[in-house]
Amino acid sequence: MRRNTTRAAAGLGAALSLLLLSACAADGGASGSGPESPSAGADEHEAPGATEVQSRTPRVAVTYDGGVLVLDAMSLEPVGDLELEGFNRLNPAGDERHLLVSTGGRFQALDLGTWAEAHGDHSHYWTAEPALTDVAYDAVEPGHVVVHEGRTALFDDGTGEVRVIDSEHIADAGAAAREYTTPSPHHGVAVELTDDTLVVSEGTEEARTGIRVLDGDGEEIATSDECPGVHGESVAEDEAVVIGCEDGAVVYKDGKITKVDSPDGYGRIGNQAGTEESPFVLGDYKTDKDAELERPTRVSLIDTRNGEHELVELPSSYTFRSLARGDDGEALVLGTDGQVHVIDPESAKLTKSIPVIDEWEEPIEWQDPRPAILALDGSVYVTDPATDSIHAIDIETGEVWKSADLGVTPNELSGVLGTEAHEH
Predict the structure, then answer these.
(1) Checking DSSP bridges between strand 323-325 and strand 308-313, what pairing results, if any?
(2) Distance of CA 282 to the CA centre of its chain
(3) Which of 55, 73, 181, 276 is the most buried (most CB within 10 A)?
(4) For 341-365, what is each residue's pLDDT tens digit?
(5) Other Cβ atoms within 10 Å of 401 Cβ, number
């Protein structure tokens, strides 16, 4: 049966007051610095003004022109508004407390101010004001961030440098990192598996061509040049890594690389949504190589158990911020018709469409605001730049159970559970 933890907790939170246990209070700074600068790490309840609360407190963050707005995921009330110039991107950090903001030549740790602290057979939960920390990982062109099984991999498109950090230490000053640099810089991606295998893209600034797989000692154990236009990644059940290509995808699993061909000569998969509890990976699907802006109406589903590739036709087009996965593994697509389309990956059938916002059109420039979708803690969140609003949806019932005005025009969307990294 589906959990709807966020909504259930919202009702509980309305009935119960939060407790401040002064005996557990502690002083200290929440911010730290990357390996290049010395300051305190953001561990345990070191944030100024930290308050102990009765249960975990998921929070949602949205970027806007000039900052990042942080919301309580249950009430959708703002809990922080942080000024940050420029076009900023949000990436999960892996510890369920921080996000990594791609901004101004670095990945900077953003503390959403919600976390858990283990005490034997139970946990204590804390909240504080969100804050941009001093922890920053320099990058000429900060690119993809991939979180998998307690490891966070950062890729610098400008240098080809890969850094892998234990997720629980991602906001600690001087955190140890595994480092690797690709032969040539490119817009790439890397993911580290539990046996220390590193899957990393191959390419140059002119062309991306495939992937390379390295063992824990950095020795090559597999390679493929059958992935033109490498872009996007997802990790599915049994640590199957799926990398998108202009003619399908490649899957690395159990020491082998398998090519999954698209049914069209040019059938590009570039953005994906997977979950480590499902063998299926949802991806976008484009077939017009020369289009200035293609508005696709089909999505791809790859079964990593056998390499089967299914296409699902939708009632509308969608964009790269339209893909998500529900708690029960549903494939979710936010369409330009304003509906969240729910697909059963096993049957590759559209099972329902949930109206959420008005119809909208994808902007030409990819940096411009457009609606985005986020699945978090049993609920699904959808932003609407046309009305400067956000909506929370119960996928099982189809109910929009909460909406809020943001006061800013939202662009990117992400969030954290407010738990320990392994506690979900």
Answers:
(1) unpaired
(2) 14
(3) 73
(4) 999 999 999 999 999 999 999 999 9
(5) 14
Residue 375 near residue 53 (C-beta atoms within 8 A): no
- Any idea which of 101-105, 240-244, 279-283, 372-376 has the lowest mean pLDDT? 101-105
Q: Are 69 and 79 in contact (CB under 8 A)?
A: no
Answer yes or no: are the C-beta atoms of 135 and 171 closer than 8 Å. yes
Map residue 365 onto helix, strand or coil.
Answer: coil
Q: How confident is the model at residue 422 (pLDDT cuts 50, 70, 90)?
A: low
Cα-flanking dihedrals φ and ψ of residue 351, to 5°? -100, -30
Amino acid letter for position 326: G
State the Cα–Cα distance between residues 33 and 38, nearest whole angstrom: 6
pLDDT digits (tens, 9 = 90+) for 25-79: 333 333 333 343 333 344 445 677 899 999 999 999 999 999 999 999 999 999 9
Report the chain's C-alpha Rg in angstroms: 21
- For residue 359, the Cα-to-chain-centroid distance in whole angstroms is 25
At CA 333, angle to CA 331 and CA 339, rounded to 5? 125
Residue 41 identity: G
Secondary structure element (H or E) that encloses residue 14, with its range: helix 5-15
Burial class (CB in 10 A: 0-12, 13-18, 19+), 219: exposed
How many Cβ atoms sit within 10 Å of the Cβ of residue 166? 17
The beta strand positions in 20-130, using DSSP E, are: 51-53, 59-64, 67-72, 78-83, 89-92, 98-103, 106-111, 114-119, 122-127
Q: What is the pLDDT of residue 49?
A: 87
115 in Cβ contact with 417 (< 8 Å): no
Side-chain-side CA neighbours of residue 296 (13 Å): 24
403 confidence band (pLDDT: 50, 70, 90) = very high
The separation between the first and the last C-alpha atoms of the chain, rounded to the nearest angstrom, is 16
- Give the mean model confidence (pLDDT) for residues 88-105: 96
Query: DSSP class of residue 353?
Result: E
Asked whether 26 and 119 are in contact (CB, 8 A), the reply is no
